[in-house]
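User: Last request for today: this protein with 4'-deoxy-4'-aminopyridoxal-5'-phosphate, please.
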Amino acid sequence: MKIYLDGKYVDQADAKVSVFDHGLLYGDGVFEGIRLYGGNIFRLDEHLERLEYSAKAILLDMPLSRKELTEVTCETCRQNQLTDAYIRLVVTRGVGDLGLAPWLCAKPSIFVIASKIALYPQEHYDNGLAIVTVPTRRINPAALPATVKSLNYLNNILGKIEARQFGALEAIMLNDQGYVAECTADNVFIVHKGELITPAASQGALKGITRGTIFDIAKELNVPIREADMTRYDIWVADECFLTGSGAEVIPVVKLDGRVIGSGKPGPITAKVLAAFRRRVLVEGTRI
Ligand code: PMP
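Assistant: Here's the final one, the structure of the complex with 4'-deoxy-4'-aminopyridoxal-5'-phosphate:
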């Protein structure tokens, strides 16, 4: 496997960063998870814009322009002869000393990995996921905006560990006011009386690229959609629920904390949204 690392395409065994890299020492950096479908990178420009915004938010100078980023992302896929893949783009603060000071880091480091991703097992797309609400709360956006896709994912990882301890693959994370924010690595939607509803980014949700795609799909399907405050009650009484993410795509949820949601089976609107999503990923995107 060839990995793009700071200007070179190197073998996996040579793709190494320093122990003094602040991405490693402090989680000081930003990243993206992107999908390649049939030789097209899905919504690459949107991912790169989010990456640039994340970098700007932490005052990290992007080492490459949008055009260069596009080129190295495509070239990494080409070098590995991939047509379908999961792409991880990472920008770290770079090598510094043992103090926090990012301004002492000489220059940011950037790497691109294009590889396979293990989706949720197919049975969960067919039958729906059973998820739980975890005790760990989402970090207050005033402390660290969820819109910044930073390398500091410990909050999500604690949520993921708790989900597993409760026997679930994904979990609802509430914000510090008790409203639903999102899941550990996916956004959440409910369907209620024919309408699609998802929490706003201000509640502690990442502005997911897949989430954004669902807004376009809703328009295409003539299904009303809106952002709203969401509590667990809203999920309890929802007709349908599903999660979205570049890795997960669109996955139905049929249980929360042991309670059955809607009919207990993936719902008709979820199925329509998923089908529309699968159509879009094949035709939209940047040809590598
Ligand atoms: N929320 C979190 C915390 C995430 O890490 C992700 C990405 N896996 C998402 C939501 C979904 O975002 P996207 O659709 O851009 O992959």
